[in-house]
Predict the 3D structure of the following.
Amino acid sequence: MGSHLVTDDRLAYVLDTGPLSHFAHAQWLGVLKSVLKEHRVVIPDVVEKELREGTEKYHTLRCVLDAEWIETVPIDTPSQWESFVHYERRLVGSDGRNIGECGVLALAENLPGAVAVVDDRVAVEAARGRPVRVRRTLGLLCDAIRAGLLTVPLVSALADDLIRGDYRLPFTAGGFADWCAREGILDL
């Protein structure tokens, strides 16, 4: 995984630990790479730390850390730290959870044109009213279906595997297409 900050005019997607780890566990990480191939994919150093700490228990996280298409960017500028502290005050409890989301939102807020990819409802709420674009993982997948990069049956299978791995989605196994129709997300 690259660890240097390179000037890059491509749209940057800043990914959280949750989507990366669950896609890796379900062996669908290549789908994220395919969907985001035209874009810069970055994680903040705090997400990299969470992933490293998880490799002892979940060996599948190694493939995320070894992915050359994912760049680690440190939270190290005053504006990034200011944003990080803002999110930390709203998201991190005594258990220390949500540090990754703080880093993702802070980094995306400070990289021009970046999009934070987080699925945690509380983190999405914390971003409201802030100068940060947020996209949920399902939104990325639906965008990819619209762009012809993925199909509904493929995303249905992927979603079912994520659900089996305890990833929270707004439908049960086998329910992706019905959810899309009910929400008016895709013309099926």
Summary: The longest strand covers residues 40-44. The beta strands are 12-15, 40-44, 70-73, 115-117, 133-135. Residues 26 and 161 are 6 Å apart (CA to CA).
